[in-house]
């Protein structure tokens, strides 16, 4: 954050063009059960370089204005998937969203992802999400003896499921899904994406079992193809396409 | 609220809050969360067939319904021609009987399955789901049976 203009105190005189700093308003949805059962939107104004990320703004607020602001982040570089949140009404990773890309002229709303229990401020209970993930058996299943060398796979076979290996389990897709909002029993896009990653892996031998799990009442057939998940995915995974591929695999398996 | 108030905005607007560290407010849980106790699948293909049926019946219904609307409302004098004699004349032919029967069954099952989906999506409590679905199935069976009965037992000489 150390830029040459940092010492410049008189911003009004310097003018907008000379300093990268702008004044942005962050409207954050606060909830603290230890104080109130009510949710409240709180505005924070801060001067910040618009080339910074929303996560930097949250840090600035937490470190300089209100230490009680609670949110998750670990790596802060779009890999760990901890800081998915709803920014200006769209699920994104705070660490991959630049302030200049989300119109800082207007207040920027930041809230917890939907469809999961809000525990405090931007922190939600991820247990139901990971339960769905566990339920699709997201691990390699094989029969017989382990080979003494690596399990070989052709580049074409690897390419088949390349898209779904990119998932970082941030829950941006699942918590953007209207079916999941209304019924948490639905597996949700993230679990299906991670099932897809093994169903179409030529080395794995439990594809049939996973397809059977997703053939269930709460499986892929509840998908309404609204593409919210594809729009939300910070990794650019074609989530809806993956779900459709699982549907197609189920149908072609039967007929 | 602005930067001048660094303390939390949530708070005792009306004096003392009843909630504290040892007595936190209840959190709002989303409907029907998945837990370890969520029952495993029924291992039937019903949902897949229902999904396929929606797609296939939809395609057929486009032809049936648009054809039906054209014949009933647009061609040959439009809606004013419809009367007892017109219906009797059409149902004298097995072709139109089959057309109307297919339309009745497909449209009813298509609509019922769609509503079943809506109920599954939006009804939160298991009891509500069950009774809404029972109401839906009853209405569907009644309408389908009554319509089928009329198509097959229609008597043009009734006066």
Written description of the protein model:
- Chain B: Its main location: membrane.
- Chain B: Keywords: Heme, Iron, Membrane, Metal-binding, Transmembrane, Transmembrane helix.
- The complex is a heterodimer of chains A (255) and B (159).
- Chain A is α+β, with helices and mostly antiparallel strands.
- In chain A, 30% of the residues lie in helices and 14% in strands.
- Chain A is built from nine helices and seven strands, in the order H-E-E-H-E-E-E-E-E-H-H-H-H-H-H-H.
- In chain A, helix 3 (127-135) runs parallel beside helix 6 and helix 6 (189-199) runs antiparallel to helix 7 (207-214).
- The longest helix of chain A is centred in the last third of the chain and has 16 residues, at 239-254.
- Classes of the chains: A alpha+beta (255), B mainly alpha (159).
- At the A-B interface, strand 2, helix 3, helix 5 and helix 9 of A face helix 1 and helix 3 of B.
Greatest interface = A-B, 49 and 41 residues
Strand content of chain A: 5-15%
Binned, the helix content of chain B reads 55-70%
Radius of gyration of chain A: 22 Å
| Largest sheet composition of chain B | none
Radius of gyration of chain B: 27 Å
The CATH homologous superfamily of the largest domain in chain A is named: Alpha-helical ferredoxin
* CATH fold title of the domain at 46-153 in chain B: 3 helical TM bundles of succinate and fumarate reductases
Give the name of the CATH superfamily of the domain at 46-153 in chain B. Answer: Fumarate reductase/succinate dehydrogenase, transmembrane subunit
Distance separating the two termini of chain A: 59 Å
Structural class of chain A: alpha+beta
- Contiguous helical run count of chain B: 4
What's the CATH architecture name of the domain at 46-153 in chain B? Answer: Up-down Bundle
